[in-house]
Design a protein that fits this description.
Layout (H helix, E strand, L loop, with lengths): L2 H24 L7 H10 L8 H8 L6 H7 L9 H8 L2 H25 L3 H12 L8 E2 H11 L3 H15 L9 E2 L12 H7 L15 H15 L9 E5 L2 H9 L6 E7 H6 L3 E2 L15 E6 L11 E4 L7 H21 L6
Antiparallel strand pairs: 1-2, 3-5, 3-7, 4-6, 6-7
Helix pairs in contact: 6-7, 6-11, 7-11, 7-14, 8-9, 10-11
């Protein structure tokens, strides 16, 4: 073979191999990768307080959930503005139903709110937003969802909750045959993820166990305890205030944050006021019936892939986590605040 031809052949072969390697590197994980991923996760089981016999027994029937991946890549929270999302979720019929349910459960919710320092209307609103008062708790196997998410696009949150789901199953804290929930692995009336269940699940009806599927008091108590312990909820304050933030300040806050939407900059309202932040209708923050010393973080909740006009809020829940991990959860917290207002007959801002 002539040298020139041989070199050309070798170059083509090398280029082809490079393309193959690049294609393999770019390929997203799928069901065929699940066995190898589970084998890798098995190595860390004992460090996560999961015995190897339990790991093998509980993962034997795990199946890849294509629908979880589809939902992950098309979350409405990434495509809609805050107001569009509220309009979709808080329909008049759902609000009316929520008011009726709030009347029914007001006494229990008030007692639980008093115990944990939360607000009764917010607790009931979370129940409504998360599962439409139990009518939409999801049918995805929770363990399968977390296994799929942890193997498709691994993050510490997903890996921790995969092991958390195993721990709940191994300890019989959740039903083996009925451990179902959303595509994202949240379950029960208030859609807890496994690690949140481990940290904040509460026995609200006093029967000695926590059942987030069938016990409304348990679900409300768990939500209230979660608010108090995780988000540093301040009783009587709104979940969020829609505000107008000067464009220069938005840029400065975003530049100081490691996330494109959440700005981790909790500070007293009086400080925001000094920075020329006003209510969305231009009124000074001092006009609000909120102590000026109350801390609030800032959220740009309107910047989406569709480049629709941005909106800003000040959030009274000062635990602002990276949006890429909890985008849906943060939206639903805000929805719950809006719904809570409407349970009292108020209107959205």
């Amino acid at each position: 073979m002539p040298l020139r031809t041989a070199l050309r052949t070798a170059w083509v072969a090398c280029a082809f191999c490079s393309l193959c390697v690049a294609a393999e590197a770019a390929r997203e994980p799928d069901a065929s990768d699940l066995p190898a991923c589970l084998a890798k996760l098995r190595k860390g089981a004992r460090d996560e307080m999961v015995s190897l016999p339990d790991f093998d027994r509980l993962t034997r029937g795990v199946r890849w959930q294509d629908k979880s991946i589809e939902h992950l890549n098309s979350q409405p929270e990434t495509m809609l503005t805050w107001q569009q999302y509220l309009d979709r979720i808080l329909t008049p019929s759902r609000v009316d139903r929520g008011r009726d349910i709030f009347v029914e459960w007001r006494r229990s919710a008030a007692s639980i709110a008093e115990r944990y320092g939360s607000d009764a209307n917010v607790i009931v609103a979370i129940w409504g937003i998360e599962s439409d008062f139990g009518s939409r708790m999801g049918s995805f196997p929770v363990l399968d969802s977390w296994a799929t998410l942890a193997c498709y696009r691994p993050t510490p949150l997903r890996t921790r909750n995969f092991y958390g789901a195993l721990r709940l199953l191994a300890s019989d804290r959740v039903p083996v045959d009925g451990f179902t929930g959303s595509w994202s692995g949240a379950f029960g009336l208030t859609q807890f993820i496994p690690t949140s269940y481990e940290s904040y699940a509460a026995d609200g009806d006093g029967d000695g166990r926590v059942d987030l599927y069938n016990s409304v008091p348990d679900a409300m108590a768990s939500a209230a305890r979660h608010l108090a312990g995780r988000t540093h909820w301040t009783r009587g304050l709104p979940a969020a205030i829609e505000v107008a933030i000067p464009a220069k300040l938005v840029g400065e806050l975003a530049a100081a944050s490691d996330d494109e939407r959440w700005v981790k900059a909790a500070r007293p309202l009086v400080d925001w006021a000094r920075l020329n932040v006003t209510t969305v209708d231009g009124q000074p923050l001092s006009s609000l019936d909120i102590p000026s010393s109350s801390d609030a973080g800032a959220l740009d909740s309107g910047r989406t892939r569709t480049n629709l006009p941005a909106q800003q809020q000040l959030s009274g829940t000062d635990e602002l986590q990276p949006l890429h991990e909890v985008r849906g959860r943060r939206f639903r917290t805000g929805q719950s605040g809006a719904r809570a207002d409407r349970l009292h007959g108020g209107q959205p801002a």
